[in-house]
């Protein structure tokens, strides 16, 4: 499969050529930030921001999803209507693509196959976009995420001068760019140079293998209460996160007729673990903070083979009280050092 | 002496003399133009206290949950002091268990470091209504376009148009409850949105459910809102509910002659009844 070139001035016409056959989702400007949204015309695509405020996860795992409608009287259930038009996610940054890869493992590669997730995900094409410069809260490099490439993307765009270099990873991607000119060897070199020039800074966070040990040893550490002291218990961090995937299932009914809905939930909500008995195993902020960090860096890794943080920095970016996940890991490292 | 140095000096004295068990203040943030709440209980740590124009949180939200620690000193902007007054009125904290370190507020800036926050631009309380120690000199703030005009503009529109504007704001909400949790007056141990027996509203982001959450929260804070703007600053999606809050403020002032959090000796608005109270809404 040959890599391709698209002139930046032709991006809108390229995008519009996709809209005929696909539901195109791309970063769109919205109230001073950008969000991944369906676009009616490719001119709405906005690549001026570092990354969309929310991750791309809701495209395949929406915040609210009707699982089925029910009628208690007739004892019948009905599936909600589903748009079979395939989706193209355009302009996804590498940290979001890594988030989708983690979600894929959870929803489609393990023992449980999530049909709701899969029907959307299997009917989709991913087009990545290089992120030229990490933001002040970003640390994707810590996880070894390459901002200039992604295996999970069908196509990956890297902007340089007045063009996009298009890395073609799959047949499905190749079909979309068939009519575009092939990339020259010089173009590939330019992109490679760009990538080298943007080498990752060093992070003063304990390396991942050390972190795993610290998390195992530090389960009962007092530092969790210290870290969580300022947390106000909202779920903004979990909702903007590309990998947080906890959900609740509720019935919404009017009389006999209603629907069963799946809705995002968040482990930072004090009531997240409230049992029907009234017992709550995680009453303290420190326990909840520990859960979030351990789920990302320990449990998910044990169960799915990868950590479920992509270093996108969104949680730190939007936290009302500046809980910065990088600081949390650093504090944990310092506490473990103090102890040993 | 600048406000930051004064705050550090006061905090050091209070901790040294064991007048307070803890000082809640602002510390350095993890990136430029940000701060983070800090909890200082040792004199040697007072250097961690900072003060700048990015002290966006209303720290009084931590007071009720930390009251078992004993007397607590808090760095509070004048608007934050208004909510402390409300918490005292509502018996959530005791006046003699809190040491208020306040100052003449220069107003807060957005993360761009230039724009004055909307709530600061129209703030009328640049000096705290009560305090234990005060630093800085009161001075006139720079102002943005008058906020009240924007509220008037909203209410001058036809109902259908207002509805569309309100709906558009509501559709931005992701129901993370950062606004509620950043608000010191939202101290209910169980918020109605989380009740499941009976369930008051749907969990999802159906816009009608979102509307009910925001309307109920607005009404719940009627006569209790110190107008600190912490909710708006906490919102990741930039939902703007200022017209709603401001109109409720105006109604409380015009119809019930009540202004939240200015007098700790006055009763809370919802705990008083006067025979001549406005009651035209009862038909």
Descriptive keywords:
heterodimer; A: 340 residues; alpha/beta; 2 domains; 7-stranded mixed sheet; 4-stranded antiparallel sheet; 11 helices; B: 283 residues; 5 strands; globular
Element order of chain A: H for helix, E for strand: EHEEEEEHHEEEHHHHHEEHHH
Strand fraction of chain B equals 5-15%
Helical content of chain A (DSSP H or I, runs of 4+):
25-40%
Tell how many strands the DSSP assignment of chain B holds: 5
H/E element sequence of chain B? HEEHEHEHEHHHHHH
Oligomer: heterodimer
Estimate the global geometry of chain A from the Cα principal axes: globular
Any idea how many domains of chain B? 2
**Span between N and C termini of chain B?**
58 Å
Q: Which sheet architecture does the biggest sheet of chain B show? A: 5 strands, mixed
Mean pLDDT of chain A: 93
Reconstruct the topology from this structure.
The complex is a heterodimer of chains A (340) and B (283).
Chain A: E1 4-7, H1 11-19, E2 23-30, E3 33-38, E4 64-71, E5 76-78, E6 87-92, H2 94-109, H3 115-121, E7 124-129, E8 155-160, E9 163-168, H4 171-176, H5 185-197, H6 208-217, H7 223-228, H8 236-240, E10 247-254, E11 257-264, H9 285-304, H10 314-318, H11 325-339
Parallel strand pairs in A: 2-6, 6-7, 7-8
Antiparallel strand pairs in A: 1-9, 2-3, 4-5, 4-11, 8-9, 10-11
Helix pairs in contact in A: 6-11
Chain B: H1 3-16, E1 22-28, E2 35-40, H2 63-66, E3 72-75, H3 78-89, E4 98-103, H4 118-121, E5 133-135, H5 147-156, H6 159-172, H7 178-182, H8 207-220, H9 230-234, H10 242-256
Parallel strand pairs in B: 1-3, 3-4, 4-5
Antiparallel strand pairs in B: 1-2
Describe the structure.
Chain A folds into two domains: about 5-195, no CATH class; about 210-340, no CATH class. Chain A has eleven helices and eleven strands. Chain A has helices spanning about 10-20, 95-110, 115-120, 170-175, 185-195, 210-215, 225-230, 235-240, 285-305, 315-320, 325-340; strands at about 5, 25-30, 35-40, 65-70, 75-80, 85-90, 125-130, 155-160, 165-170, 245-255, 255-265. A seven-stranded mixed sheet of chain A has the order 1-9-8-7-6-2-3, with helices on both faces. In chain A, strands 5-4-11-10 form a four-stranded antiparallel sheet, with no helix packed on it. In chain A, a hairpin with a 2-residue loop joins strand 8 and strand 9 (about 165-170). Chain B is α/β, with parallel strands linked by helices and about 280 residues long. Chain B has two domains: about 5-135, no CATH class; about 145-270, no CATH class. Chain B is built from ten helices and five strands, in the order αββαβαβαβαααααα. A five-stranded mixed sheet of chain B has the order 2-1-3-4-5, covered by helices on one side. Classes of the chains: A alpha/beta (about 350), B alpha/beta (about 280). The interface of A and B includes residues 54, 64, 232, 250 and 266 of A.
């Amino acid at each position: 499969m040959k890599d391709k070139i698209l002139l930046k001035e032709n991006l809108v016409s390229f995008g519009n050529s996709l809209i005929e056959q696909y539901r195109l989702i791309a970063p769109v400007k919205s109230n001073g930030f950008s969000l991944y949204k369906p676009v009616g015309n490719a001119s709405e695509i906005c690549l001026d921001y570092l990354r969309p405020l929310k991750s791309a996860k809701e495209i395949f795992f929406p915040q609210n999803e009707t699982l089925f409608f029910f009628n208690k009287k007739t004892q019948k259930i009905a599936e909600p209507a589903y748009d079979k038009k395939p989706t193209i996610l355009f302009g996804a940054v590498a940290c979001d693509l890594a988030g989708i890869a983690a979600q894929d493992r959870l929803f489609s590669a393990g023992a449980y196959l999530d049909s709701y997730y899969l029907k959307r995900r299997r009917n989709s094409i991913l087009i990545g976009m290089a992120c030229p410069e990490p933001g002040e809260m970003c640390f994707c490099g810590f996880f070894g995420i390459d901002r200039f490439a992604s295996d999970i993307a069908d196509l990956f765009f890297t902007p340089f001068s007045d063009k996009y270099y298009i890395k073609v990873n799959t047949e499905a991607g190749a079909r979309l760019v068939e009519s575009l000119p092939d990339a020259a060897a010089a173009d590939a070199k330019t992109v490679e140079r760009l990538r080298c020039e943007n080498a990752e800074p060093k992070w003063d966070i304990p390396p991942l293998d050390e972190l795993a040990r610290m998390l195992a040893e530090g389960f009962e550490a007092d530092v969790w209460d210290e870290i969580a002291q300022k947390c106000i218990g909202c779920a903004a961090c979990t909702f903007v996160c590309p990998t947080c995937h906890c959900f609740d299932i509720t019935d919404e009914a009017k009389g006999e007729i209603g629907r069963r809905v799946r809705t995002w939930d968040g482990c930072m909500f004090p009531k997240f673990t409230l049992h029907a008995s009234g017992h709550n195993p995680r009453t303290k902020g420190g326990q909840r903070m520990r859960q979030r960090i351990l789920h990302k860096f320990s449990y998910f890794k044990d169960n799915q083979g990868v950590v479920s943080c992509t270093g996108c920095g969104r949680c730190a970016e939007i936290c009302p009280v500046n809980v910065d996940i990088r600081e949390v890991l650093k504090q944990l490292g310092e506490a473990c050092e103090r102890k040993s | 002496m600048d406000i930051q140095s004064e705050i550090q000096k006061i905090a050091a004295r209070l901790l040294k003399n064991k007048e307070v068990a803890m000082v809640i203040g602002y510390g350095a943030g993890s990136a430029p133009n940000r701060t983070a709440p800090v909890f200082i209980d040792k004199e040697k740590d007072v250097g961690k206290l900072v003060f700048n124009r990015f002290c966006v949180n209303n720290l009084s939200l931590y007071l009720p949950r930390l009251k078992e620690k004993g007397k607590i000193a808090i760095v509070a902007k004048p608007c934050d002091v208004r909510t402390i007054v409300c918490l005292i009125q509502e018996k959530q904290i005791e006046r003699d268990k809190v040491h208020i370190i306040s100052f003449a507020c220069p107003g807060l800036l957005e993360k761009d470091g230039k724009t004055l926050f909307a709530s600061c631009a129209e703030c009328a309380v640049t000096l705290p209504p009560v305090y234990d120690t005060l630093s800085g000199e009161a001075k006139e703030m720079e102002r943005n376009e008058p906020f009240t005009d924007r509220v008037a503009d909203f209410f001058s529109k036809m109902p259908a148009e207002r509805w569309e504007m309100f709906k558009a704001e509501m559709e931005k909400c992701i129901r993370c409850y950062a606004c509620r949790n950043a608000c010191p007056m939202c101290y209910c141990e169980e918020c109605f949105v989380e009740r499941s027996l009976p369930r008051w509203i749907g969990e999802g982001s159906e816009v009608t459910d979102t509307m009910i959450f925001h309307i109920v929260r607005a009404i719940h804070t009627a006569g209790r809102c110190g107008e600190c703007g912490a909710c708006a600053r906490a919102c990741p999606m930039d939902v703007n509910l200022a017209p709603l809050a401001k109109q409720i403020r105006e109604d409380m002032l015009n119809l019930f002659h009540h202004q939240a959090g200015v007098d700790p000796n006055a009763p809370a608005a919802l705990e008083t009844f006067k025979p001549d109270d406005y009651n035209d809404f009862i038909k």
